[in-house]
C-alpha cells in the first residue's frame, strides 16, 4: 500500500539518476512508487515505510510534528541538551516514515542548535549535509515529478544556509557570507512572486520576520567588514521593526529570539566603539529579560570583566563559575569554553598564571572538539602569554607561531596583526635580537595604524587606535629608543601626528539656506546631495571618513626611511596604498630667526620629536614617562577653569582663581615650573636659550598630543638645571635661578597636522564679526548666555569696533560697533552668506563646545541658529549648534586667511582622538592662521571692575589685522606676563590671556585638496 505523499501522476520517463541508486527517499518509498507504475522495483530499493499502514503512518506523522514543536521551544530557551534529544527522536520518525523533508528539517534545526552551543564542527557538518541531501532530493523530485515536495524542503535549505552565513562571517569570509545572503533574498523574492498557490505561508515570510533575520546577518557582515556606523543604524531600525512585530501572536517567540540577537549585536558595536556604558546597558537588559535562562548566564560572563575592573575580583570569578555551570547543564559547550576563556583572562590579569593556563586548556579542549578555529587562535595567543609570563619562551613561541599560521591561513588580517603582536611581544620580552623583533614589530605597527582608517565610524577607529594601534606603537617606540634609531622614531611620531582630515564628501551636501530638504530615504538623483535624513544626528552617521596619512617627505634632501617599512606592511597585511600627493612635514623657515618644530605623540608614554627648520636632518627624540605626563595634567587640571565633572562654571572659575592656581603668583609659578620640568627636555631648553641669545627671538611651533592639548606652552618656566633625584614639591625651586618663561625667549604657535587638506582662502575684503551671538532659548545669564556681558558705547570693545568702522566697512553691515554685538541673526545662514563674499578675517567670540562625544566633527560653535535649521547636531531646546561636520558638509567650504575662534577650549581639537574639530575644519577650509584658546575662558564677570575678555578680543583682532599676528599676539602676552609679575591680582591673571594661541599654517607651503 502506498502511503504518505500522493503518487506522481506520470511515470518517470528517464533512467534512474546515479545519485538515487542508493534507494533515495523523498517523501515516500521509491520502491512503492515504482510498483505503482509497474516498473522494476529492484533499482529503487525498499525502506521501512513500505510496511506501514495509513493509520500508523498518520500517527507517526502527528508525533513528528509534536516533537519538532517541542524541540523548537527548547532551542529558543537554549536548552540544548533537551532539544537535541527531541531532534534525535524526530530523525527516528523521519527514517520510519521515509520522509526526507522531516529529516532535513531536523538536521537543519540541529545545525542551528549546534551553532548556538558553539559546536561549530557539527554545526557545519549538519548544514552541509542538508545542502547535499537537498541536491539529491531535488534530483528525485525531478525524476518522479513530485514538485510539491520541493516546497517542503526549501525551508530547511534556508535554515542550513543561515548557519553557513554565520560561520563564514566569524571566519572573516565576508564575500561568501554576502553571497549566501543575496541568494536567500533572491529565492525569497521568487517565492513571493509565485504566491500562496505555489508555496505555504511559512515560506512566504508574510510578516517579514525572515527578512529581519537576514538583516541581522547583514549587520554581522558589516561588523566583520568594519562598518560599525552602518551596523549601528541598521540595528536600531531592526529593533524598531521587531518591537512592532512583537505584538503579533503568530511570530512572538521568534521575534523575541531575534530581539535578543539584535541587542547582543548592538552591544558588540558599542563595545567596539568604546561606548562601554551603553554596551553594558544592553547586556544588563538582556540579562533581566532572560533571567533564569542560559542567555542570562552568557551575558553574566561578559559583564564579569566590568566587575573585576571595578575591584570585585572574587565576585567576577564567582559569576563566571556559576554561569559556566548553568551553560554546561544546558549543553552549551561553546559558551562553556567562552566562560573558561574569560576566567583564564581574569586570572592571568592578577598574575595567577598556572590557574589561568588550566582554564585556557579547558576552553581549548572544548573548542578543538567543536572545530572553533577562530576560538582556538585566541586560546593559542592566551597560552602564549601564559608561557611568556613564566619565562617558558620555547612554549610561548610554539603557541604564538600556531596562532600566526592560523590567522594567515584564514585571511583574517586583524587577527594576523594581533597574533604577530603577541609574537613580537614575546620576542621583545625575551630579549631576542632587537633587529629581528623590529622586522616583525615595525610593519605590524604601521599596518595597525593604517588599518584604523578602514573603519567607517569614529567610535570604531578610536577603539581600534586605543586597544590595538597604541600598544604596538608604544612597544616599537621603546624598541627604537633601545636601538638608538632617532630618525625612525621621529618619522613614526610625525606620521602619527599627520592624521587629522575627514574626507568622503565630493561637494556640499548640507543646505544652509534655511529650507529643510525633504526627508527622502535615498540620495537625490538630481544633484547628488544627501538628504538630511541620511546625515542623522551623530558623527557616526555622517558621510565623513578619516583619511590615512599621505606620503610624507622628511626634508628637501631626503624622503622618509619609513617608506620601505610601509611597503612591507602593505605586502604582509594586504593593506591598500593609494597614490597620494607627497606632503612636506616641516614649515618654511622664517628669515633671520630659528624655527623649532615639536611634535608629541601618545603611545602609553608620550614621545617628543623636535628639530629646527635650519637643520631638518638633525633630530632629537625623547620619551616622556606616563607618570610625568600624568603629574603635569593633574596640576594643570587643578588650575584650569575648565569645569570638572559635577562642577558648575562658577565653581570652576573660583577654583582657578584660587591662590594655589592662577589667582596667586606663587601658585601659578609652581604650575609653570612643574609643567616645564615634566615636559621640556634639557636639550630643547638649551637650544632655545642659545637661539634667543643671537638677538632674534626663535619661533616654537608645537603639535601637541591629546594628553597635552591644554598646555599653555608660552607660560612654561625654563629650568636652569635638572635634579638628580625625584623632587618633592617644595624642592622644585632649586632647579630655577629666576622666572624665565618660554614667552620670554620665544614666540609660540601651534602646528597643523601635515595631513590636513588646505583650500586657498577667500579673496581679501572687509572683516567679519560674529560677536557674542544671542542663542535661542538662552538667557544672557544662562549656561549659553552672554560671554562679553553688557556692553555700551563707552566700553573698550565697542570703542575698538567703532574705530574699525571708521576705517572702512565691516560684515555684517553695521552703523556702529554696538550693532555688531549680541545680534539675533548671526546664524549659519548669515555665516554662509558672509563667507561667500571677499573678507580679510573672521572674528568669532562666543560659546564653543563638544556637543556629542569625543570626535572632532561634533565640536561646535553656538551661533544664533534655531532648531529648525538643518545640521548634524541634535538640538538643545530651540537651538541647533553649528558643528565642524556642518562646516565640512555645507557650502561654507572656504574661510578667510585669518580666523579667530574665541570660546571655551576652541583649540581643543588636539585633545580629541580624531582632531578634526572647528579649529582644523577652519584650516581645511582655507584659514592660514586661527587664533583660539586651549581652555574654557572665564567671562569678565569673574573680576568686577575689569574687562579682560574684551582686552583679549581687541588684542586678537588687532593682531589679525597686522602683518605678523603670531609675533604681535606673543608680544601682547609678554606684556600681560610683565603686568602679572608686577601686580599679581585676579584681573591680570594668566587664566584670561595664557590660553590664547595661534595655529599658524601660513608658511606650511601647502594648498591642496584631497
Automatic annotation (TrEMBL):
Which InterPro entries would you find in this protein's record? TPR-like_helical_dom_sf (IPR011990)
The organism's superkingdom is given as Bacteria
Q: Could you tell me which residues belong to the region Disordered? A: 1-21
Composition bias, kind Pro residues: at what positions?
A: 1-18
Protein name per the record? CHAT domain-containing protein
Q: Which species does this protein come from?
A: Amycolatopsis oliviviridis
Amino acid at each position: 500500500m502506498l502511503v504518505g505523499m500522493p503518487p506522481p501522476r506520470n511515470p518517470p520517463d528517464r533512467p534512474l539518476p546515479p545519485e538515487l541508486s542508493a534507494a533515495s527517499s523523498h517523501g515516500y518509498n521509491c520502491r512503492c512508487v515504482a510498483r505503482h507504475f509497474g516498473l522494476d522495483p529492484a533499482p529503487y530499493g525498499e525502506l521501512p515505510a513500505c510496511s506501514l499502514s495509513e493509520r500508523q503512518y498518520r500517527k507517526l506523522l502527528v508525533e513528528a510534528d509534536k516533537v519538532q514543536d517541542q524541540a523548537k521551544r527548547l532551542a529558543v530557551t537554549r536548552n540544548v541538551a533537551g532539544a537535541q534529544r527531541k531532534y534525535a527522536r524526530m530523525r527516528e520518525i523521519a527514517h520510519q516514515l521515509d520522509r526526507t523533508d522531516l529529516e532535513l528539517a531536523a538536521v537543519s534545526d540541529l545545525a542551528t542548535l549546534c551553532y548556538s552551543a558553539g559546536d561549530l564542527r557539527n554545526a557545519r557538518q549538519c548544514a552541509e549535509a542538508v545542502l547535499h541531501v537537498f541536491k539529491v532530493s531535488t534530483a528525485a523530485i525531478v525524476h518522479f515529478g513530485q514538485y510539491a515536495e520541493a516546497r517542503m524542503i526549501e525551508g530547511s535549505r534556508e535554515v542550513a544556509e543561515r548557519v553557513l552565513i554565520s560561520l563564514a562571517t566569524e571566519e572573516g569570509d565576508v564575500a561568501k557570507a554576502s553571497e549566501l545572503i543575496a541568494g536567500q533574498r533572491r529565492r525569497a523574492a521568487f517565492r513571493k512572486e509565485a504566491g500562496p498557490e505555489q508555496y505555504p505561508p511559512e515560506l512566504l515570510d508574510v510578516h517579514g520576520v525572515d527578512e529581519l533575520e537576514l538583516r541581522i546577518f547583514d549587520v554581522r557582515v558589516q561588523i566583520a567588514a568594519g562598518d560599525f556606523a552602518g551596523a549601528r543604524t541598521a540595528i536600531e531600525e531592526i529593533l524598531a521593526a521587531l518591537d512592532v512585530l512583537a505584538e503579533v501572536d503568530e511570530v512572538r517567540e521568534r521575534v523575541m529570539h531575534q530581539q535578543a540577537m539584535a541587542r547582543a549585536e548592538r552591544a558588540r558595536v558599542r563595545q567596539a566603539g568604546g561606548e562601554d556604558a551603553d554596551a553594558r546597558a544592553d547586556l544588563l537588559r538582556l540579562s533581566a529579560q532572560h533571567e533564569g535562562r542560559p542567555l542570562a548566564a552568557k551575558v553574566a560572563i561578559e559583564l564579569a570583566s566590568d566587575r573585576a575592573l571595578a575591584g570585585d575580583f572574587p565576585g567576577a570569578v564567582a559569576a563566571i563559575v556559576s554561569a559556566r555551570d548553568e551553560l554546561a547543564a544546558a549543553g552549551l559547550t561553546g559558551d562553556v569554553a567562552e566562560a573558561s576563556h574569560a576566567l583564564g583572562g581574569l586570572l592571568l590579569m592578577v598574575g595567577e598564571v598556572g590557574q589561568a593556563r588550566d582554564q585556557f586548556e579547558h576552553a581549548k579542549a572544548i573548542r578543538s572538539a567543536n572545530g572553533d578555529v577562530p576560538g582556538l587562535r585566541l586560546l593559542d595567543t592566551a597560552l602564549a602569554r601564559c608561557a611568556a609570563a613564566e619565562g617558558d619562551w620555547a612554549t610561548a613561541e610554539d603557541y604564538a607561531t600556531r596562532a600566526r599560521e592560523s590567522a594567515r591561513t584564514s585571511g583574517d588580517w586583524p587577527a594576523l596583526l594581533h597574533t604577530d603582536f603577541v609574537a613580537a611581544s614575546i620576542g621583545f620580552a625575551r630579549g631576542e635580537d632587537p633587529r629581528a623583533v623590529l622586522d616583525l614589530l615595525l610593519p605590524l605597527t604601521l599596518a595597525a595604524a593604517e588599518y584604523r582608517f578602514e573603519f567607517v565610524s569614529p567610535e570604531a577607529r578610536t577603539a581600534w587606535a586605543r586597544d590595538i594601534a597604541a600598544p604596538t606603537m608604544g612597544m616599537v617606540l621603546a624598541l627604537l629608543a633601545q636601538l638608538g634609531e632617532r630618525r625612525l622614531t621621529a618619522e613614526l611620531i610625525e606620521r602619527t601626528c599627520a592624521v587629522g582630515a575627514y574626507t568622503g564628501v565630493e561637494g556640499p551636501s548640507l543646505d544652509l539656506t534655511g529650507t529643510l530638504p525633504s526627508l527622502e530615504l535615498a540620495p537625490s538623483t538630481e544633484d547628488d546631495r544627501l538628504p538630511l535624513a541620511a546625515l542623522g544626528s551623530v558623527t557616526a552617521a555622517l558621510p565623513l571618513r578619516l583619511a590615512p596619512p599621505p606620503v610624507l617627505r622628511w626634508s628637501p634632501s631626503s624622503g622618509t626611511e619609513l617608506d620601505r617599512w610601509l611597503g612591507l606592511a602593505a605586502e604582509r597585511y594586504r593593506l591598500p596604498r593609494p597614490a597620494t600627493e607627497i606632503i612636506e612635514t616641516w614649515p618654511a623657515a622664517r628669515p633671520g630667526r630659528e624655527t623649532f618644530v615639536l611634535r608629541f605623540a601618545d603611545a602609553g608614554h608620550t614621545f617628543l620629536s623636535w628639530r629646527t627648520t635650519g637643520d631638518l636632518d638633525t633630530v632629537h627624540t625623547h620619551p616622556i614617562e606616563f607618570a610625568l605626563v600624568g603629574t603635569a595634567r593633574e596640576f594643570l587640571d587643578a588650575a584650569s577653569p575648565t569645569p570638572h565633572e559635577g562642577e558648575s562654571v562658577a565653581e570652576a572659575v573660583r577654583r582657578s582663581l584660587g591662590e594655589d592656581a592662577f589667582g596667586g603668583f606663587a601658585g601659578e609659578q609652581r604650575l609653570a615650573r612643574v609643567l616645564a620640568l615634566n615636559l621640556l627636555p634639557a636639550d630643547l631648553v638649551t637650544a632655545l636659550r642659545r637661539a634667543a641669545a643671537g638677538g632674534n627671538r626663535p619661533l616654537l611651533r608645537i603639535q601637541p598630543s591629546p594628553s597635552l592639548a591644554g598646555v599653555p606652552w608660552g607660560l612654561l618656566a625654563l629650568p636652569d638645571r635638572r635634579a638628580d633625584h625625584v623632587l618633592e614639591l617644595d624642592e622644585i625651586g632649586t632647579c630655577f635661578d629666576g622666572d624665565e618663561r618660554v614667552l620670554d625667549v620665544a614666540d609660540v604657535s601651534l602646528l597643523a597636522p601635515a595631513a590636513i587638506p588646505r583650500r586657498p582662502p577667500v579673496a581679501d575684503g572687509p572683516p567679519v564679526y560674529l560677536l557674542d551671538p544671542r542663542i535661542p532659548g538662552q538667557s544672557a545669564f544662562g549656561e549659553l548666555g552672554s560671554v562679553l556681558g553688557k556692553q555700551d558705547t563707552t566700553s573698550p570693545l565697542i570703542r575698538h569696533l567703532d574705530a574699525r568702522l571708521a576705517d572702512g566697512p565691516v560684515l555684517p553691515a553695521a552703523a556702529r560697533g554696538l550693532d555688531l554685538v549680541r545680534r539675533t541673526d548671526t546664524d549659519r545662514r548669515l555665516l554662509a552668506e558672509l563667507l561667500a563674499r571677499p573678507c580679510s578675517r573672521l572674528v568669532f567670540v562666543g560659546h564653543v563646545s563638544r556637543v556629542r562625544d569625543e570626535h572632532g566633527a561634533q565640536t561646535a560653535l553656538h551661533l544664533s541658529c534655531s532648531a529648525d535649521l538643518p545640521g548634524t547636531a541634535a538640538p538643545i531646546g530651540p537651538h541647533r549648534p553649528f558643528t565642524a561636520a556642518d562646516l565640512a558638509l555645507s557650502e561654507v567650504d572656504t574661510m578667510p586667511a585669518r580666523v579667530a575662534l574665541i570660546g571655551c577650549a576652541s583649540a581643543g581639537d588636539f585633545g580629541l582622538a580624531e582632531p578634526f574639530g572647528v579649529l582644523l575644519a577652519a584650516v581645511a577650509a582655507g584659514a592660514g592662521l586661527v587664533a583660539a584658546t586651549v581652555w574654557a575662558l572665564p567671562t569678565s564677570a569673574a573680576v568686577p571692575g575689569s574687562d579682560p575678555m574684551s582686552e583679549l578680543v581687541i588684542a586678537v583682532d588687532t593682531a589679525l589685522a597686522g602683518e605678523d599676528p603670531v609675533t604681535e599676539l606673543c608680544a601682547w602676552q609678554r606684556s600681560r606676563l610683565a603686568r602679572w609679575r608686577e601686580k599679581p591680582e585676579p584681573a591680570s591673571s594668566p587664566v584670561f590671556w595664557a590660553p590664547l594661541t595661534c595655529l599658524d599654517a601660513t608658511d606650511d607651503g601647502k594648498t591642496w585638496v584631497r
